[in-house]
Design brief:
This is ATP-binding cassette domain-containing protein. It comes from Arthrobacter pullicola. With 326 residues, the protein is an alpha/beta fold. It has 2 domains: 229 residues, Rossmann fold; 83 residues, ACT domain (Alpha-Beta Plaits, 2-Layer Sandwich). Helices cover 33% and strands 30% of the residues. The strands form 3 sheets. It has a 6-stranded mixed beta sheet with strand order 6-7-8-3-9-10, sandwiched between helices. Strands 2-1-4-5 form a 4-stranded antiparallel beta sheet, with helices on one face. Strands 12-13-11-14 form a 4-stranded antiparallel beta sheet. The protein binds adenosine-5'-triphosphate.
Length: 326
């Protein structure tokens, strides 16, 4: 379990102060994957540096499985850092070393006996599906295979936490999916706690259990994926179940409807048409599966004469959330 409490990081540039993190809090249960999404400058890299103690936060705490990292003495930082495996955008492998030797490197650095290293490397090669590539050099590997080596290397010292900083930003869509599925499988298999820093909503959609939206150093929305997706007016919901923009249309009110789970497959619109003897004009629609649940989002235009309150009551009784768009 990772708990981040009221983390602040202020940089000084001459007389100017830059508040890179402004009271960030989050809690990620063991065995789950939490996405941190934000635009450039939101504070993602600063958060990574503070979590890995490459940078000391100005205030606030980071706790992993009950042990506070932020009050670890400088002399103990290396040891504390071993509890966190890091995966970066580029695996940055050593070109002159084979796959096996790259994975062995962090274990050599901490003086692990040679025989233990060999056994652990075999285990890790199997874990990331690279048994056949133990003797290959980085130049002989694809981008996805290099990232698999990077993941194996991050897991070498049995960390509790895997911190992935834009792990798929340099990969094509198919390889991205393969790497994300591998991270998800390893999370379940090893009971890891995973934080993924990303600017891609697809990463969040595919593997995250929960998400935080970081903006100007603050978490502006957060929660389990299904919860944020159900909040119709929210920014994360709009990004998770996007609808194309539609030009203004003369006539009746435009509303957005959100249907979750079984409701997403029910004929809500025909029910509405029959009950209110009204026309419903569909402007845009999208269906997504998030954390195993179906979410349907529709933008529709109703007749000008529609009794909106009665429609809202009816839709609410059908388990549909309604937001009047215009
Ligand atoms: N060492 C530093 N000194 C001064 N300001 C800094 C320093 N590092 C980061 N900042 C500032 O802190 C804010 C957050 O930066 P950060 O790099 O954490 O954002 P980011 O979300 O990782 O962006 P990107 O995706 O572009 O890497 C920015 O305003 C940045 O200019």
């Amino acid at each position: 379990m990772i708990t981040v409490t009221d983390l602040r990081k202020v940089y000084r540039q001459g007389t100017r102060e830059v508040v890179a993190l402004d009271g960030v809090s989050m809690s990620v249960p063991k065995g789950s994957i939490h996405g941190i999404i934000g635009h450039s400058g939101a504070g993602k890299s600063t958060l990574v540096r503070c979590l890995t103690l490459l940078d000391r936060p100005s205030s606030g705490t980071v706790t992993i499985d009950g042990r506070e990292l932020t009050n670890v003495k400088d002399s103990e930082i290396r040891l504390a850092r071993r509890r966190i495996g890091m995966v970066f955008q580029h695996a940055n492998l050593m070109d002159s070393r084979t796959t096996a030797a790259n994975i062995a490197h962090p274990l050599e650095l901490v003086g692990t006996p040679k025989r233990d290293i060999e056994a652990r490397v075999q285990e890790l090669l199997a874990l990331v599906g690279l048994d056949q590539f133990a003797d290959a050099y980085p130049a002989q590997l694809s981008g996805g295979q290099k990232q698999r080596v990077g993941i194996a290397r991050a897991l070498a010292a049995h960390p509790d936490v895997l911190l992935c900083d834009e792990p798929t930003s340099a990969l094509d869509p198919r390889t991205t999916d393969e790497i994300l599925d591998l991270i998800s499988e390893l999370t379940n298999r090893l009971g890891l706690t995973v934080l993924i820093i990303t600017h891609e909503m697809n990463v969040v959609k595919r593997i995250c259990d929960s998400v935080s939206l970081l903006e100007a150093g603050r978490v502006v929305e957060h929660g389990p994926l299904q919860e944020v997706a159900s909040h119709l007016g929210g920014r994360l919901a709009k990004a998770l179940i996007p609808l194309p923009p539609t030009p203004p249309v003369p006539g009746g009110p435009v509303v957005e409807l959100l249907m979750v789970g079984d409701h997403a497959t029910e004929p809500v619109l025909s029910g509405l048409t029959r009950r209110f003897n009204t026309d419903v004009n569909v402007l845009a629609g999208s269906v997504e599966t998030l954390a195993g649940q179906r979410f349907g989002r529709l933008r529709v235009q109703l007749d000008a004469s529609t009794d909106m309150e009665a429609v809202k009551d009816y839709l609410a009784s059908q388990g549909v959330t309604v937001e009047v768009a215009a």
